[in-house]
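re: ur question from yesterday

yeah so i grabbed the chain u mentioned. its 250 aa long if i counted rite. heres the sequnce exactly as i have it in my notes:
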Amino acid sequence: MNKPLIGVLGIKTEKPLPGQKVTMDYVNEAYNKAIMDAGGVPFLLPVPEKPNTLDQLLVMCDGILFPGGADVDPKFYGEQPHEKIGPVHQQWDAFWFHALDFARNKKMPVFGICRGMQLINIGLKGDLYQDISESGLKHLIHSQKQNRDYPLHEVEIVQGSLFHELMGAEGVYTNTFHHQIVRNVGKGLKVTGRTSDGVIEAMENEDGSILLVQFHPEELQNTVPATRNLFKHLVNKAAEFRKSKRITPK
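ran it thru and got these structure tokens back, copy pasting raw so excuse formatting
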């Protein structure tokens, strides 16, 4: 077997236990399962103290998944913190930005989900509304109380886009768990999905090596089966990249 290796960027958190506190590097199981079901092999990339510490692991990747998680520190897009910003982690952000630069330099495919989409947008010189209330939009619910696999709102899809091809429809109902939204779109990205209130829910680049969604498709694999295609796209792109690495230049 020679399946593509998908690096999944880890989340750092502190878990309180009786009489102690444990720092953990982890990723939600749903991401790993979605990658495996799509034919890839996931492995965790924990957050190091120095961003380049794990370059030996990054070079092993055929693709990288940027999952959901905490807010990105607004200093990375030149802003002071809004009163509604959540916890931020500069060390965590710095490693993820390094992984993005590493992938782009190698022309490695990446898939960004929720926080992952927002961070990649920032890494490509875009920015965010730190809270959806800043946008002035009369917005829908974007942080649902229903189970994570419940498709709550509809995303309208741009025809002719990769996202449209993968979803096979002009709209798809998705879940939603975010309070920050994309404001200015990063360089080389185009918007391919929005909710009816104007919130950006999907973006991609020209060659499909960068695919970004604001919702959580890893949790919708059974309730919205078309979302499986997003992970299949990552794995297929990673397989192409893996093959290209084995070609020795003449």
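noticed a couple things. The chain has one domain: 5-246. also The chain has a mean pLDDT of 94.
anyway ttyl
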